[in-house]
């Protein structure tokens, strides 16, 4: 029994030493001077870290070394765009933006400039869900995606940028809706109306417009402003009659003996006129 325990202890020691040796070997490889290697050899090491080991941070090291050891070369240019990509893959968005911007500044006419611009926008876009109520990065993503669409309309990144632009735009409207619902639930009708109005006026092409109109019916009824409530219902019925939000708004209006027809001369009446004339959506 004592012999078996001794064997187990020795095996554990051997395994620990082996793992430590592997760790030292990895660290040594990363720290090994690369001055005597060609740019292509260093590039292949960076590619290996990315594709075979999924270590983008280590890949950045090799691509950065190419830029240091072989400045102004074709390999340095390619390594710079790969730095941006590797930083982005590692979730290092600030660093990704920095590398992408340097590529754009240094090689504005290069065929990879479109990809650099796309990476720049993507580094903002991929942070949208992390920013909470602060929409600054969302606006930056929209600006970056628009630049890709406008400056490189024939590139392979334009179509993806259009899709992401629509999603980011929808995200902004969703945040306005979230805050508006918060106010409405607590009886702050005027504050809620201000948020829903932003959606109807500024984000009318998003998926949130039907609900925003229904919430306007609810909020205006809460304030006793029946003209505005009926007009919001009319707009909703004209554009989204099959939506469940219209059914809800219609029920609320009928419950007060009202109908979804335009009344008065509010901002909603102006929008209704534009809808009838076909100039709104």
UniProtKB/TrEMBL annotation:
What's one GO BP annotation on this UniProt entry? Answer: Gram-negative-bacterium-type cell outer membrane assembly
As for subcellular location, the record says: Cell outer membrane
* Gene3D superfamilies attached to this UniProt entry: Tetratricopeptide repeat domain (1.25.40.10)
* Signal peptide region: 1-20
Per UniProt, the keywords (alphabetical) are: Cell outer membrane, Lipoprotein, Membrane, Palmitate, Signal
Q: Where is the Outer membrane lipoprotein BamD-like domain?
A: 38-232
Matching entries from Pfam families are given as: YfiO (PF13525)
InterPro entries linked: BamD, BamD-like, TPR-like_helical_dom_sf
Can you list the GO cellular component terms from the UniProt entry?
cell outer membrane
Membrane topology per the entry is: Lipid-anchor
Q: Is Hydrolase among this UniProt entry's keywords?
A: no
| Task performed by this protein | Part of the outer membrane protein assembly complex, which is involved in assembly and insertion of beta-barrel proteins into the outer membrane.
Q: Self-association or partners: how does it assemble? A: Part of the Bam complex.
Listed NCBIfam families: OM_YfiO
Assigned protein family:
Belongs to the BamD family.
Put simply, this protein is called Outer membrane protein assembly factor BamD
What lineage, starting at the top, does this entry show? Answer: Bacteria, Pseudomonadati, Pseudomonadota, Alphaproteobacteria, Rhodobacterales
